[in-house]
């Protein structure tokens, strides 16, 4: 039984971010990989859409410049033959401010021949923004 | 071939929200259902965690008081035997302000015997908050 592509990809991604070693990640990205991390790109230029291996490796370098991953936990998980989705809880440090950040996100990944062809990431971005700012944003109650 | 539990649940949920008819939804909720919608509960009191059928029906009534669903599209999807996960794009109206809201979320649902036992929803909450406020929140660039 071979390891699921999601585990290899996850390990390679975290190695690229925390150790700045992106060879494993490069080997697991489809040349035409379709990448989207939904979030406020004005604040986080490494959010947004990227297309192709070179663009994804570059955005992962930008992520590595800005955060360090300390821990992550998968809160929900689904695996298909060539796909995997999970809700994850990350403990990070924002390197510029040295602020600890606790982040919840959902990711949906598609693989072909073991390589990542598509990934979509939805983040609880308001919580992220408040932590990155280091202060709460006042909100009116709408309901 | 029977219909997947996720489709029945989705139909019942939208009926409860848009038509305020919650009988179908009530019949599909496990008595001890575990429900979590991650988001800023100060602004949206119907976000947060709920436990049990009565609490979930009540929070769905609060959602129905506050939004109307116009359209939704599943952008990514995974189905298991007793589970389903998707990234969805919703077009809503916020009833209080009459503002149109376009919302992206990821949901992970677990079923047992056709009934919902657990659901987790991650929302692109910053985008939601800005639309609900009707104005952008200025953000510094952190990277």
Q: Give the strand order of the largest sheet of chain A, numbering strands 1, 2, ... along the chain.
A: 2-1-6-5-4-3
SSE run of chain A = HHEEHEEEEH
Mean pLDDT of chain A: 96
The beta-strand count of chain A equals 6
Topology:
2 copies of one chain form a homodimer.
Chain A: H1 5-18, H2 23-28, E1 29-38, E2 48-51, H3 53-66, E3 67-79, E4 83-94, E5 99-112, E6 115-123, H4 125-133
Parallel strand pairs in A: 1-6
Antiparallel strand pairs in A: 1-2, 3-4, 4-5, 5-6
Helix pairs in contact in A: 1-3
Give an account of the 3D structure.
The structure is a homodimer of 143-residue chains. Helices cover 30% and strands 43% of the residues of chain A. Chain A has four helices and six strands; from the N terminus they run H-H-E-E-H-E-E-E-E-H. Chain A has helices at 5-18, 23-28, 53-66, 125-133; strands spanning 29-38, 48-51, 67-79, 83-94, 99-112, 115-123. In chain A, strands 2-1-6-5-4-3 form a six-stranded mixed sheet. In chain A, helix 1 packs across helix 3. The termini of chain A are far apart. The A-B interface holds A 38-40, 42-46, 62, 65-66, 75-76, 78, 80, 83, 85, 87, 94, 96-97, 104-106, 108, 120, 122-129, 132-133, 137, 139-143 and B 38-40, 42-46, 62, 65-66, 75-76, 78, 80, 83, 85, 87, 94, 96-97, 104-106, 108, 120, 122-129, 132-133, 137, 139-143.
Brief write-up:
The structure is a homodimer of 143-residue chains. By secondary structure, chain A is an alpha+beta fold.
């Amino acid at each position: 039984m071979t390891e699921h592509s999601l585990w290899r990809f996850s390990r390679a991604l975290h190695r690229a971010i925390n150790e700045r070693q992106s060879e494993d990640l490069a080997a697991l990205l489809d040349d035409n990989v379709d990448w989207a991390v939904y979030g406020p790109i004005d604040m986080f230029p490494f959010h947004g859409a990227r297309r192709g291996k070179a663009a994804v490796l570059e955005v992962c370098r930008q992520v590595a410049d800005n955060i360090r991953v300390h821990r992550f936990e998968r809160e929900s998980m689904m695996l298909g033959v060539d796909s995997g989705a999970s809700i994850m809880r990350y403990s990070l440090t924002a390197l510029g401010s040295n602020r600890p950040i606790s982040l919840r996100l959902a990711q949906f990944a598609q693989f072909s021949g073991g390589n990542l062809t598509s990934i979509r990431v939805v983040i609880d971005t308001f919580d992220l923004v408040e932590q990155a700012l280091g202060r709460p944003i006042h909100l009116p109650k709408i309901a």
